[in-house]
Amino acid sequence: MEPNTIVAAILGVLEGLTEFIPVSSTGHILLAGHFLGFDSPGRSFEVLIQLGALMAILGVYAARIAQILRDAPRDAQARRFVAAVLLAFLPAAVVGVMAHGFIKTVLFETPMLVAVMLILGGIVLLWVDRRTAVPVYHRVEDFPLPMAFGIGLIQCLAMIPGVSRSGATIVGGLLLGADKRSAAEFSFFLAMPTMLGAFAYDLYQNRGILDAAALNQILIGFAAAFFSALAVVRWLLDYVSKHGYALFGWWRIFAGSLALLALAAGW
């Protein structure tokens, strides 16, 4: 097996393990790829393999999504929830299209920034996790539209690699009144249009530079991300309900600090 194929599989597993926990999957993949000498055309690999993680969460939530869609024509709460997810997706869609070139050519190419954002995000996550505010919302279906839009605005911070899409949306949910479980679950639902939109737009933008070797690496990363994400999605909600997010905050600080030391050493 070629070295790049092995690295693609490693990065795919890393994507699946980190996509839905608040540690920044893109940050981890960019740093791991940097230190392993992996380079993808147009940085498309790092975005396109997210479809594997997305397929995993769609599989886990398929029955619930189908029920919501069946209920929507006659149930006002189901319609409001669909509207809430789409409204939360809108800011990232606009910012992602407008800033796509800058994100891919500047932010994705700055490992020092990724490491610093991992550390800062870890500090924020620890602070939010230790807050004693009493949650107002315990079910994602009850999130009001202004709250969903606010979470969507906060999600835009995740355009900076190392911030974490799930981390931004979970912190946003917690600050706006959600409990720990529902904040994570809304992040799952919001991931569906966000990741699908990012995949489709990035594939369109890079359609002319993806050769057979790049597509092979993407398929390997996709498969690895799918299977590793399945395990995380099934485990995460129960874990955060009982233990909160401190573990992920400390991991971010550790990983970011280790990356800074490695970069300072010239690796």
TrEMBL record:
InterPro entries: UppP. It is a multi-pass membrane protein. Its EC number is 3.6.1.27. The keyword ATP-binding does not apply. GO terms for cellular component: plasma membrane. It is an enzyme of class 3 (hydrolase). This is Undecaprenyl-diphosphatase.
